[in-house]
Design brief:
Length: 605
């Protein structure tokens, strides 16, 4: 009896110790690669259970977040035998994958699993727009990234994972000084599939030269404490043409990327998958303070701003009168070299030498930081008198923004000897014009009056009447043309159907060649262009919600509007899908043609 009592006591003690060893622990961790939780991010709520076989309830009431996935991600069990007493241990982890939806500070727990209560955990969800990585970040017309759909999602000016940053080499400059405007892409997404500009940047008050010196591959850069893959996607050399604060407005880009989502699987552990994402992103705007060139400006200032050198060349020093020759001036340098003007040489050359308008040849290169090259001015001249003459030195005054001073470059002059030519200027006055009566016979019949004067014929007066009639007709036609083209929006609206069909022909040509990318480009341009021209809407206003409202106001049926938007969505998805959409080119072309015909009929009715 005593032995049985001891055994029961040991079993009871083991059960009590097992009950006391049971525990539940709750923890929160951000998405891999991030140190904080932001709106739109995935994060993980883990429930660690020890020596409890019960399953925790699905956490549907987590503050500021939405449940994406919940499952058991770890399970361990074991047995041990000490002095004939066998004990069993059990541990499991249940992980809830959450998506942050609302900014704020929250707490979760305690929760009960099998009668055992857990701890309470606190966490904070920050705003995605508050991240220091995004300059001038705006939410724009972003959609909820938790939406389970295959259609592209749009984000306004960027998010913490991808944005564009525009910069200029100097925020303060002189008139005509060369500045470098650069647009750089920053991203943490796994893959960049497509980058395309949907509009050009606006350079108000600038002359621009586009540079081809952009990135051919991604590099890595740490910006405000975070590492990004970066690439220069646009570079311009800009020259301010006026003083004051001039604004550069960033253009819009369409960027297709792969976004990686993480989740826990009960069999395979941590898993991930990629989903296509399309972003409409634009860089920040910039303002450049342009200063006036220092006063007083030299009287012979050429308008050149930069750094230049002027040279000259002349083939020989012996010439003859009335025989043409040429002197070539070569301007070498960097800056606004395309717009430099030579001084008036006719006022500097001796009066005995006649100088003609030069032939100009430009050879320049748009680099990463400036425009450089050469410009040759080939001046033809002709000596009119014999003797010794001096072709003067030619000075070109330019402004160097690095020194802040006006500088002068001088092309050397030449001493020339002019000999007698075939017909010199001194004996030109000896040439006389002699009338030869044999050049025209005298009509004696006209003098006698037997011939009717030509002034009395109809043909004579037609020479006066006909130009007047043609002039009046030209004025009427021109006024009609001006009235038709005064309102370009109405003109384009009338020609919208014809323009769309011309664009669809380009899409058909691409379809025959099997070029799916070009086909969908031309198809989307035809559809959006038709609607923009027909509705007199700017490109920036062609958004799906606006289009639905305007079509409804024009009494277009909802069925036609929905069909049009559906065709647009299908074409955009096929263009950026991994399959490329090559199999349905014919169907897409037929649907686009039919919807344009239906819209045209709707507008006419």
């Amino acid at each position: 009896m005593t032995k049985k009592f001891h055994i029961l006591l040991i079993v009871a003690l083991a059960a009590v110790s097992s009950a006391f060893g049971a525990s539940v622990r709750v923890s929160v961790s951000p998405q891999r690669g991030k140190s904080r939780i932001e709106i739109g991010d995935l994060f993980y709520l883990s429930i660690d259970v020890t020596d409890i076989t019960a399953t925790p309830q699905k956490p549907d009431n987590v503050g500021g977040a939405k449940l994406v996935y919940f499952d058991r991600t770890r399970e361990e069990s074991g047995f041990s035998s000490i002095n004939g007493v066998t004990t069993r241990s059990y541990a499991a982890t249940y992980t809830a994958t959450m998506r942050a939806t609302k900014e704020g500070s929250y707490s979760y727990g305690p929760v009960s699993v099998g009668g055992v209560w857990s701890n309470q955990v606190r966490y904070t969800i920050g705003s995605a727009s508050a991240t220091p990585a995004v300059p001038s970040a705006q939410t724009g017309n972003s959609t909820d990234s938790s939406d389970d759909t295959d259609k592209p999602k749009y984000i306004g000016k960027g998010d913490g994972n991808l944005f564009l940053r525009a910069s200029v080499s100097s925020s303060t400059a002189y008139e005509q000084q060369a500045l470098v405007y650069t647009v750089k892409l920053y991203t943490t997404y796994d893959a960049i599939k497509f980058v395309g500009a949907t509009a050009a940047p606006k350079f108000d008050g600038f002359v621009i030269e586009e540079s081809k010196d952009i990135s051919s591959s991604l590099s890595f850069e740490t910006y405000q404490g975070k590492t990004y893959a970066t690439a220069v996607i646009a570079r311009y050399i800009i020259f301010p043409q006026m003083t004051g604060n001039l604004k550069v407005t960033g253009n819009n880009y369409t960027i297709a990327v792969d976004r990686r989502e993480y989740y826990h699987d009960s069999l395979f552990g941590n898993m991930s998958f990629s989903t296509p994402l399309q972003l409409n992103v634009s860089p920040n705007d910039l303002v450049v303070n342009v200063k006036e060139l220092p006063a007083p400006k030299p009287a012979d200032f050429s308008g050149a701003v930069g750094r230049f050198r002027l040279t000259s060349s002349l083939a020989g020093t012996q010439f003859r009168t009335n025989q043409a020759a040429s002197v070539v001036y070569t301007l070498i340098g960097t800056g606004n070299i395309k717009y430099v003007q030579m001084p008036d040489l006719s006022a500097q050359y001796p009066p005995e030498i006649e100088v003609y308008t030069p032939t100009t040849k430009q050879d320049f290169k748009v680099g990463s930081s400036n425009v450089s090259g050469t410009v040759t001015f080939d001046y033809s001249f002709m000596p009119l008198e014999e003797g010794s003459f001096r072709i003067p030195d030619v000075k070109l005054v330019y402004f160097d923004p690095e020194t802040g001073k006006y500088e002068t470059t001088v092309a050397k002059g030449y001493s020339i000897q002019v000999g007698k030519g075939s017909a010199s200027g001194k004996n030109a006055d000896k040439v006389r014009v002699r009338f030869d009566p044999r050049l025209q016979k005298i009509d004696t019949a006209a003098l006698s009056g037997s011939v009717r004067p030509y002034i009395r014929s109809i043909l004579y007066w037609l020479w006066f009447i006909l130009p007047v009639v043609l002039l009046v007709a030209a004025v009427v036609i021109y006024r009609r043309y001006v009235s038709l083209h005064a309102d370009m929006a109405s003109f384009n609206s009338r020609r919208a159907d014809r323009t769309a069909r011309r664009r669809l022909k380009k899409a058909a040509a691409a379809m025959k060649k099997g070029d799916a990318d070009r086909f969908y480009d031309e198809l989307l341009v035809a559809l959006w262009g038709y609607l923009g021209d027909k509705l007199k809407m700017p490109t920036s206003g062609l958004m799906r919600d606006n289009v639905r409202q305007v079509l409804s106001s024009r009494n277009v049926s909802d069925d036609v509007s929905d069909t049009f938007i559906s065709i647009i969505d299908d074409a955009e998805f096929a263009k950026y899908s991994s399959a490329g959409g090559k199999e349905n080119l014919g169907n897409a072309y037929s649907e686009a043609t039919r919807i344009i015909n239906r819209l045209e009929n709707e507008f006419k009715n």
